[in-house]
Amino acid sequence: MKTFDAGTYIKQGYYKSFQPTFINKDWKLEDMEVINLLSQADRQLGRLDMYSEYIPNIDLFISMHIAKEATQSSKIEGTNTNVEEVFLEREEVSQEKRNDWEEVQNYIQAMNKAIQLLDGLPFSSRLIRETHKILLQGVRGEHKQPGNFRTSQNWIGGASINDATFIPPAHTSIPELMSDIEKFANDDFNKFPELLKIALLHYQFETIHPFLDGNGRVGRLMITLYLVSKNILKKPILYLSDFLERNRSLYYDNLMMVREKGNLDQWFKFFLVGVIETAKSSIKTFDGILQLQKQIDTKLRLMGSRAGNAQKIMNYLYQKPVIHAQKIAEVAGLSPATAYKLLAEFEKLGILVEITGAQRGKLYVFKEYIAYFG
Fold first, then answer.
1. CA-based angle 61:64:68, to the nearest 5?
2. What are the C-alpha distances in Å from 149 to residues 55, 128, 141, 224?
3. CA distance linking residue 307 with residue 300, whole number of Å
4. pTM of the predicted protein model
5. What is the pLDDT of residues 347-365, one digit of tens each?
6. CATH H-level, domain 30-284: superfamily
7. Domain 302-373 of CATH type 3.90.1150.10
8. Residue 224: how many CB atoms within 10 A of its CB?
């Protein structure tokens, strides 16, 4: 692809904002390295998508993928919650970590709700705004117009607009820029490859920065939502935040290189490498989980009459790998005494590990499973 005219800087009094060009136009792909990476990325995504069809209970494992994505995406924004903590109840989270925990919970809710909305909504500004509204509800940023595009200037990096790393476009141009994004996303006559489309959509969204807060998280959510909306993935099982967190400087540098030098091909290469690595990693995770599931099924069969209740507990643990005795009683419909016996057996088999060291309110973790999402 020849040099991309990304936009121009426009003087706004004492600062200059960046006005991006529209992206809803015909594109030509010429860089053979991009074409080669695109072929690899398509192949790996196809392999990953096969798991949606061949694992009968794949929905059990998706909540863990979303939990990992929520922690990694929030981590990029400075939030620090680990996967185990995601599954704790609010009152079980220490006071100093509670704000971070709530932001991660919102991320999970936003992703789940957005996936549901795709049944009746196309990939659109409305979908993006609805997702943003859930993301910022009741947390830091709740006063920054949740669900609405900004009506004032924002900036990226720096303590103030005077020393900002990047100043997005003026708020008055957001409606037409987001309309352009929506048209490009849903232009089925434009045969530009879908993976490059979402790479370009993500770049443009982060450049517009249409919200006062939460742009990074929404922009990363958009990647998975787009792939599901276009049926490239049947289930939401690819998340790039882990890759972007590990390569954070490169991620920001590549976005800036498009804005300042028009080097879109380099951004495409970075994005496609992220898709390839993440898809391979997700395939490895699924393979590991399937092996673990087989080993545990073998152990459960040795439990005789208690195997049925044990399976109910396992189905719960694959979705929420932190549990206590009362929850075991509730999930399997058991008396407290029977629940404690079953819990002891799970400990003996090495499926659950107690993590609090307390006499009361003990919490147990499915550690071997969580390790696949660490």
1. 145
2. 40, 10, 13, 21
3. 5
4. 0.91
5. 999 999 998 876 777 899 9
6. Fido-like domain (1.10.3290.10)
7. no
8. 24
